[in-house]
Amino acid sequence: MLAVQTIADGLVLGGLYALAAVGFSLIFGVLGVVNLSHGAIVMMGAYLTWFVWHTTGLDPLLAIPPVMLVLFAFGYVYQRGLIQLAVDRSSLLASMLVTFGVALMLRNLLVLVFSPDFKSITPGYAFNYLRLGEVTIDLVRISALAASLALLGALAWVLNRTRIGRVIRATAQQELAARLCGVNARHVYGMTFGVSAAFAGASGAILGIVLPFAPPDEANWTLNAFVVVVLGGVGSPSGALLGGLVLGLISTATSQLIGPAFPNAMMFLILVLMLMVRPAGLLGNAFAASR
Amino acid sequence: MRAPILQLTNVTKRFRGLVATDRVSLTVAAGSITSLIGPNGAGKSTIFNLVTGYLPLSEGEIRFHDERIDGKSTVALARRGIARAFQIAKPFPDISVHDNVRIGALFGRDGRRDVDQVTERALALTGLEDFADRPAGDLTVGFLRRLEIARAIAARPILLLADEPCAGLNPAETEEICDILRRIRARGTTVFLVEHDMEAVMRISDNIIVLDAGAKIAEGTPGEISANPAVIAAYLGTPDAA
Amino acid sequence: MLAEALARHRWWIALTLLGIAAAAVVPFVLMPFHVRVGQMILLSTGLGLAWTLLGGFAGYWSFGHTAFIGLGAFAAGLFEVNALGTEFMRTDPLLGFALGLLAGMAACAVAAALVAWPILRLRGIYFAVAMLGVAQVLSELTNSIEAFQGSLGLVLPRIPAFGLRTEAVFYYLLLIAAVIILAIAFLVKNARIGQGLAAMREDEDTARMLGVPTERYKITMFVLSAALTGALGVIYAHSLGYITTGSVYRTDFSLNMIVYNLLGGIGTLVGPLIGAAIMVLLTQVVLGSFLNLHMFLTGAMLVALVVAAPKGIMGGLAGTWQSWRRRRTAAP
Fold it and tell me: Helix, strand or coil for residue A14?
């Protein structure tokens, strides 16, 4: 039964990893930028949600839409105002440095505003749970998984069925061709960043109800997102889901079987192995092409 | 015929299903300029990549002098005296022309001795002395090609593989490159050449090998090759080609 | 080759020796606070130079070099406390410190050699992120494995003062370390390996084609850079006296090593000194009262730098000099 419990926990965590990584993956796929401030944006989402919940008592899941809206605006301005400038003036590696710098700034600001201590969000149903045979899952985790999957589904729908989604995918594949078709590539890049930040924020809200969090966690969430992308491939919600679930299971199994200190070490091992053996991801899609 | 310096025996290279070279056997005689010609996709570049250790071969063997060299690393081959000048010149753009050539000398065969003299000689032989202090990124295509050759011969190679050194050059520049290649041969370095410019090939080659669709279809002196019906067929695409 | 390089750079060398002499009298003339600022500049210069051995010379930008500061610090500390013991450290503190230093450097060299083979096959952003991962994982393991005492903290044995004030002792130790690293960097840059690295940084595949043993070179530089960074970590840890995971595995260290180089000019020897001096003076002296905004300012500095002067001060100067020279040689 322990195995089933581990798998259930792993799936919940995996859904969260997937949602937290999907925006990172999108930016990497469309802009070719490794956004090292992604984890900091996830943390911003968590803190915004905590703030709303703490001051108004609004259910954290209901706080997701406004948080996404705010972070969408943040992401759009961040890309148009800073990232694009860095890409234009020097190289992609330099743009990655800029995001590294921004991550540190955001972390510092979060510490100043919210203190360096751990926070957690505990909605009213935090202590209810569901029992299926011998496996127990609390309601919070079920709603977290459901919300993660619903949001990933929504993003997939946006990318595949709406005009802006099609434009984003077209720009990712052929910037020049898309531009020739009258697409304003810079606007699309800004939108992509906005969408990415919005989903990072949503994942922050969900992580807030599942786990305690503190500003320095941002580094872990960035690295997690990177590992998810390496596992699942770049640019698609389904890839992020696959990578996220695999990572969630590995992480839970590692802390069960080896020890709670080792999930990140294990993830890192897998990251390096994957980069060396299958740089195109488990499914072998566009990762290599974006190198 | 002079002793072979490079000898390929039944060399086959497959990429997944595609056969790029099919049991090709050929020899390059020491001290010669030997050219490898053929239509696009004939397998010329594959042969070069196999000889320089860029690609592992599927079957067959490659000998340099009397040593088997297939499976050896690019670095090991460079040390043994095989150098390659690429068609698309790859200079180190922010490093001066002189230092580009010097790096070739430093890491080539016997690279610790007389580095500076070797560098000067390579610059002189390719007519680059006047540009020695410029960053390589400043050079025009024709001079980049010369730099590519200079850097390769600074390594003091026994065998120089020149990959389409005349592509995209005007007749005057082509003539200069031909001169440089002749001078290299005169110094005792064997030249193995892939080139599309037939006039240049006919003018400077001692021996010509013709590939088509991955297989060798002819070999001989320029005179023999230009009269060979199979070669003409391969180039013109006559339906009854062998 | 070396003799020629020494002759060519004789003015720089004379200037450097003069600078070292000037730096050596600082503790006697300046106030303790300023000596501590000098200490920070020397530490930062050393770190910048150690980073540049790999990042500037070989073109492999590590985003997680603090891994070796932390590893060196903890390896030395644990070795001195557990392997040598308090008794040994009390009776022969100098030998104890020296052995601790060696242990820290060895730990970093071994760790670097172990991860070198897999992660040096990654290039560009992949290498950078992988190093970020190395730092993150090492800091977590230090924190959560009890024997390493990362969360509890580790009190380091005191080192002898030779009648000097504490800050002066560490000032001199860091000065010696920085000078040694500078000398190593000079030797590397002007040796055959330096030429090979310059080629490799511009185009690794072509360099290999020309016979540059790229694998061996980059592993050498990685191990060297790690060991020297570790040595600085050991000295820094002793200057703190008490270390936790958070005080030596610091993301802002990783970032700062890049900032110093970018600011001063990447791949140059004087660049890290210029960059470190500017950054330390700016953050410690000018903005010294905003200590809780330290990370923010570092980040902001980096962002401004990349956007405004992507090649750094020396890089910018060199660029101007080159284009001036080019114009001059091109003139009829």
Answer: helix
Put simply, the chain A residues between 156 and 195 with a CB less than 8 A from any chain C CB are none
Which of C198, C206, C214 shows the shortest C-beta gap to B90? Answer: C206
Residue the block writes with tokens 């606070």: C33
List Cβ neighbours of A56 (8 Å cut-off, separation of 6 or more): none
What is the spatial distance between Cα C69 and Cα C230, in angstroms, rounded to a whole number? 5
Question: What is the distance between the alpha carbons of residues B191 and B185, in angstroms, rounded to a whole number?
Answer: 7
Q: How many CB atoms lie within 10 A of CB A43?
A: 31
> A91 to chain C: nearest residue by CA?
C310
For residue C329, the chain B residues in CB contact (below 8 A) are 133-134
Which residue is closest to C143 within chain A, CA to CA? A261
Between the alpha carbon of residue C150 and those of residues B109, C76, C153, C243, the distances in Å are: 51, 13, 5, 8
Q: B67 has which bridge partners? A: B64
Residue given tokens 């000078």 in the structure block: C179
Which residue segment(s) compose the domain that A54 sits in?
Answer: 2-290
**DSSP structure class, residue B2:** P
> Alpha helices of A60-91 — where are they, by DSSP H?
64-78, 84-89
Task: Count structural domains, chain A.
Answer: 1
H/E element, A233: none
- Domain containing residue A9: CATH number: 1.10.3470
Q: What is the DSSP string of C10-54?
A: HHHHHHHHHHHHHHHHHHHHS-HHHHHHHHHHHHHHHHHHHHHHH
Q: What is the DSSP string of C151-217?
A: TT-EEPPP---TTS-HHHHHHHHHHHHHHHHHHHHHHHHHSHHHHHHHHHHH-HHHHHHTT--HHHH
pLDDT at C314: 59
Distance CA C6, CA B196 (A): 48
β-strand pairing of C242-243 with C154-155 = antiparallel
Q: What is the pLDDT of residues B106-149, one digit of tens each?
A: 988 876 778 889 999 999 999 998 988 888 888 888 888 999 99
Number of domains in chain C: 1
At A58-93, the pLDDT tens digits run 888 899 999 999 999 999 999 998 988 888 876 777
Backbone angles phi, psi at C95, to 5 degrees: -60, -40
Exposure string (b/e) for C181-218, b if CB count within 10 Å is 16 or more? bbebbbebbbebbbbbbbbbbbbbebbbbbbbbbbebb
**Across the interface, which of C202, C205, C210 has its CB nearest the CB of B93?**
C202
Is A214 part of the contact surface with chain C (CB cutoff 8 Å)?
no
Helix, strand or coil for residue A261?
Answer: coil
Terminal CA-to-CA distance of chain C, rounded, Å? 34
Element (H, E) at B25: strand B18-29
Segments forming the whole domain that contains residue C259: 2-330
Question: Are C96 and C89 in contact, with CB atoms under 8 Å apart?
Answer: yes
Specify the CATH number for the domain of residue C194.
1.10.3470
Averaging pLDDT over each range in B78-87, C50-59, C162-171, C283-292, which range is the top one? C50-59
Task: List domains and CATH numbers for chain B.
Answer: 4-236 (3.40.50.300)
Q: What pLDDT is recorded for position A280?
A: 56
C196 vs B79, B84, B107: nearest CB: B107
| B102–C contact, CB cutoff 8 A | yes
Q: Looking at the complex, does the CB of residue B88 fall below 8 Å from at least one CB of chain C?
A: no
